[in-house]
Amino acid sequence: MAKTATIASRGARVAVRRQAFVAEVLRTRALSPSMMRVVLGGRGLLGFVSTGVGDEFVRLLFAAVGESEPRLPEAKDGVLDYGSIDPDLSRVYTVRRFDAERGEVTIDFALHSGGIAAAWAVRAKPGDRVGITSPTPLHAPPDDRRVRRAAHRAGSVTSASSDASDAEKSMSEPSSSADPVPGAGAG
């Protein structure tokens, strides 16, 4: 059976099959002297799907010196074999933005000396190619109702979307094991 990364997103579960793509640079923009934004897209990204989690990450795979195409990890039953590629030619990055309608993935690069990814980002121009894996989520936050309730119990200011009666009710409710606050008491 194929392995997938499954997460909760806005109440729905999104399964993302582990695979690798070859994307093209669509555009770049210097955000500051030490940050570069690169927007990836193209036909090679067809099938790329976001997990819907705000801190999802991808592995970028760069071409070896003298080559124009990155080497992608072999995929077997939805598992990417990173042992089949040179680990020095890949780096992990957080997805800044995914635009499903346009098929674009935005990555921000911190520019520094000695980094393969930073050097690539500085030179990147439209049409350049880079490997990118399907995203992996790091943390799916609990639904908004539970976050507000935890904030109320902690004495934090209520969110703008909750009214006073909701705040009073949630603060007066006793804490129970049937409605735990995520992460509370975890050691």
Could you describe the 3D structure shown?
The protein is of the alpha+beta class and 187 residues long. Helix content is 14%, strand content 35%. It has helices spanning 116-123, 144-153, 164-172, and strands at 4-9, 12-17, 20-32, 35-41, 57-61, 74-76, 79-81, 90-99, 104-110, 129-133. The strands form three sheets. Strands 3-4-9-8-5-10 form a six-stranded antiparallel barrel. It has a two-stranded antiparallel sheet with strand order 1-2. The longest helix has 10 residues, at 144-153.
Q: What is the mean predicted local confidence, pLDDT?
A: 78
Given helix and strand content, the structural type is alpha+beta
> Radius of gyration in whole Å, from Cα?
21 Å
DSSP strand count: 10
What's the helical proportion of residues?
10-25%
Describe the sheet with the most strands. 6 strands, antiparallel, barrel
Shape: globular
